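tool=predict chain=A
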Amino acid sequence: MVSAAEQLARSASWSTFSKATELKQRLLFVLGALLVYRLGTYIPVPGIDPYIWNEIYTQKGGGILDMFNMFSGGALQRMTIFALNIMPYISASIIMQLAAALSPQLEALKKEGESGRQKINQYTRYLTVLLASIQAYGLAVGLENMHGTTGSAVIDPGIFFRISTVITIVGGTVFLMWLGEQITSRGIGNGTSLIIFAGIVAGLPHALFSTLELSRQGQFSFLALLSIFALIAAVIFFIVFIERAQRRVVVQYPKRQMGNRLMEGQTNHIPLKLNTAGVIPPIFASSLLLLPLTIVGFSGLEGGDWTATLARYLHHGQPIYMLLYGALIVFFAFFYTAVVFNTDENAEMLRKYGGFIPGIRPGKQTAEYLDGILTRITLLGAAYLVIICLLPEFLIAEYNMPFYFGGTSLLIVVSVTLDTVGQIHSHLIAHQYEGLMKKARLRGR
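tool=predict ok
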């Protein structure tokens, strides 16, 4: 006969296995969702002649179009239903976060907890639909104005084509927004970042082949090719090193009376990452730089003098582009860090639970102390982001390298990979801890 303790132990082991099964299901859900996304990048927009559009894209390719195509996972080059990808949602998130920092009403909504957060998310979705509609209509009008050597890119221009294109592309963007939310809630990692990650990774083999082909054609020597890959490896190593760096602020908790027991004082720490904002600043900066030029490029106005000048100065490798890109990265690094880590709220939370930083008074002085530390490390983090994102730009400008080897793409790929692996590791630790606790209770009996 099997004892009751053995039965309980078996049930505990089965529970731990079930938790591992749940993690596998989450991972399978992420893979399935990303597979659906990749399939959608091959479904063309109705009414487009793919051969003429491919000819036009080849002629107009380079600069902003290639970067937008990289973020869309090749969907723009194929002119599919995911041509805008999830960029309108990112732009809407930027606008809502800026509005929340300036509007007292939205700030009050943020403080309402889960209900307020849901309302802000709903407003973000509405704004996403509006932005995607504007961009999709501009894209439809621009396609009607584009002609290759054998005719127009649109088979049958007119109001019906514009309406169908807007509905199709906006529907694709809304679907990706929903898919990203499902990945976040039912999978592992941040859904929006994983969708962009999947698009970039899908283009890496072609980018590698293109780089080797450029070397074979003699555009740069074999030694230069090795130097390029050595630089890429160094950038990846630097990203991993900085993304794991953190500043630990020591926090002490005094002795406390809990019932009949006297709890000893504890020492803990607040981990402040050197790059608290993560991959958000480059994505936000890229989306803001892409938005105006995308509208100009597909509105039929690119032949004008001022639009040609704008496109020339905002081309990759140009000083103005680098200056604007770096300034936007710095701005969003500080802005998003302030959104993620509120020093006043954290100081109040420490005071509420009796914690204090040695040598610093609780309350306002603690908030100022944390703000000073956060400002200094965010300055270093912003400088790191600017270096990572702008250093490889000369490869693109000088050697016509694919955008997939740029600092922004490498930062996104490495950061999202580290974040996802970290979340998987946290799930495994939580499951093991739960299993160990159950075994400890069984042994205690």
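Residues 4-17 have pLDDT under 50 and may be disordered. Strands lie at 147-148, 151-152, 246-253, 256-258, 261-263, 266-273.
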